[in-house]
Amino acid sequence: MNTSDTENLSQTMATLARTLSAPRTVDERLRAVTASAVDLIPSKSCAGILLVSKGTKFETVAPTSPLLRKLDSVQEELGQGPCVVAAIKNLVVRSDDLRSDTRWPQFTAAAVDAGILSSISFQLYTAREKMGALNLFAFEPNAFGPEQEAMVEVLAAHAALALTAARTEEQLRSAISSRDIIGQAKGMLMERFAIDAIQAFELLTKLSQETNTRLNVVAQQVIERR
């Protein structure tokens, strides 16, 4: 990497850091990541993020081209491809020339037919029910050298942080909502049966165990049925 490339990289990463630190939605942050990834690759390319839920549900996020949805759809249909492998199994999956890559024959045939000749994918994170990968596809072979791989890996870390923060926030909102629902149900039971808060909670817990239903669901049912 020459001095000019180093300066361009530094400027791009500084701009991205400012963009990601500003108050933005998760989608805006991820779109900044995929756009920056394409800007860092000399060859014509496109980028996107693939999220895989429970191993079967695919979602394309922040694509820089409609082609990403098509490629992800093919991988979902076939159950094979570099993005799937990266999201579920490996940290980095690359193919310098899809025309000679034998790992995913059906996918590579579809990709080459669409003009895609090389790819690189980075695992973002793995959780019990959801996995993800940042994926780049290029219209030329050997588009991703060591420098490009290192640069995009940094972007993948930014994407992973944004997604992890969003997942944590969602879990927190869910926990607060469940707490409020349980509290409301307890209050209704206390009033209806003239019992204290501990007895009301014990009643909810007993109903949950006997019906094999989550506590917040039982509480919601109590509220709805009044």
Work out the number of β strands. Answer: 5
The CATH class of the largest domain is Alpha Beta
Q: In angstroms, what is the radius of gyration?
A: 24 Å
DSSP helical segment count: 8
Summarize model confidence as the mean pLDDT. Answer: 84
Instruction: Examine the coordinates and then state which fold CATH places here, giving the name of the CATH topology of the largest domain.
Output: Beta-Lactamase
Spatial strand order of the main sheet: 2-1-5-4-3
Which sheet architecture does the biggest sheet show? 5 strands, antiparallel
Return the CATH architecture of the largest domain.
2-Layer Sandwich
Keywords:
Arc Repressor Mutant, subunit A; alpha+beta; Beta-Lactamase; 8 helices; 226 residues; 5-stranded antiparallel β-sheet; 2 domains
Description of the molecule:
It contains 8 helices and 5 strands. It has helices spanning 3-21, 26-40, 67-78, 82-88, 105-113, 146-193, 197-211, 215-225; strands spanning 45-53, 57-61, 92-95, 118-126, 130-138. It starts with a helix and ends with a helix. The mean pLDDT is 84. With 226 residues, it is an alpha+beta fold. A 5-stranded antiparallel sheet has the order 2-1-5-4-3, with helices on both faces.
